[in-house]
Design brief:
Layout: E1 3-12, E2 15-21, H1 23-26, E3 34-38, E4 46-54, E5 59-65, H2 69-75, E6 82-83, E7 85-90, E8 101-107, H3 110-113, H4 115-123, E9 127-134, H5 143-147, E10 152-157, E11 164-165, H6 168-178, E12 184-190, H7 193-203, E13 209-213, E14 229-232, E15 235-238, H8 239-242, E16 245-247, H9 253-260, H10 264-272
Parallel strand pairs: 8-9, 8-12, 9-10, 10-11, 12-13
Antiparallel strand pairs: 1-2, 1-6, 2-5, 3-4, 3-7, 4-5, 13-16, 14-15
Helix pairs in contact: 6-7
């Protein structure tokens, strides 16, 4: 039987949204938490952030970027199909305070990762700005959804085909400079590792509290396997139980990047088959 896929739609090239019936997850989940899913009994365990959670309907929305074989298999699921496993919620909920002006920065599918935080920040009375990016217009996702919960949304594209021409970090720097009357007090970011590292370098000299949602290799989600270990402030932590969100100014992004590419050759062989 599994967990039914009630809706499956493409949001961007290689990015799929699945609406999944998972009432056990919605009962206790909060912003920043994730689930681990398998498409088939012999499939790889894939961690996915809970993008939307509808407690009344008992459904969660998952956003998947097809990168390797397992994520491609998930993206190939159609409406009416099912997932073998949906385990969660896992990880710690985002700590949300009223800080004044908070900014969320998302790159590509990372925009879906921080959508729940945008909603929670607004519910706490913050002024919330969203800076979202993609290589071109088709890769910018969830703009309308964010407009419904944020005070301002700034889309960016690398090629200038939509919104601000340039990287999200450039737009973040501009927004910080422009916001003297309502200064930026907190930044939450998710996306490619180089982007999150660059966001941290923008805010570090200004002392703006910055949180990064990390995406290391993960297997069991309980801290037993050690696959998701990350260096934060010189300490070895596990993203699945200690995170997935950490102080971006303390994260060793180089080690995170190295670990994420450790199985690239194996993944390429699987895709070739």
């Amino acid at each position: 039987m599994g967990y039914q896929v009630l809706e499956s739609v493409w949001l961007a090239p290689n990015v799929r949204k699945l609406l999944v019936a998972a009432p056990h997850v919605t009962r206790n989940c909060g912003p920043g938490q994730f689930v681990i899913v398998r498409a088939t009994p012999d499939g790889e365990r894939i961690p996915l952030t809970i993008g939307f959670a509808d407690k009344a309907a008992g459904t969660i929305s998952l956003f998947i970027q097809a990168i390797g074989k397992s994520t491609t298999d998930l993206c190939n699921l159609e409406t009416g199909s099912s997932l073998c496993d949906v385990a969660g919620p896992m990880g710690k909920k985002t700590t949300i305070h009223n800080v004044g002006h908070a900014v969320i920065v998302g790159g590509g599918v990372g925009t879906a990762v921080i959508y729940p935080q945008a909603r929670a920040l607004k519910e706490q009375g913050n002024y919330v700005s969203a800076i979202i990016g993609g290589r071109s217009k088709p890769y910018v996702i969830l703009e309308e959804e964010l407009k419904a919960v944020c005070d301002a949304v700034y889309p960016c594209t690398d090629d200038g085909s939509y919104g601000f021409k340039g990287f999200v970090t450039q737009r973040l720097g501009q927004l910080i400079t422009e916001s003297t009357a309502n200064p930026v007090k907190e930044v939450i970011t998710a996306g490619p590792v180089p982007m999150m590292k660059a966001v941290a370098e923008v805010t570090r000299p200004l002392g703006i509290h910055t949180v990064a949602s990390l995406n290391p290799i993960m297997v069991d989600g309980t801290g037993m396997c050690g696959g998701c270990r990350v260096q934060v402030g010189g300490q070895m932590l596990f993203a699945c139980v200690d995170g997935p969100e950490f102080d971006a100014h303390q994260v060793d992004f180089k080690e995170l990047s190295d670990r994420l590419t450790a199985y690239r050759e194996h993944e390429q062989r699987c895709m070739a088959k």
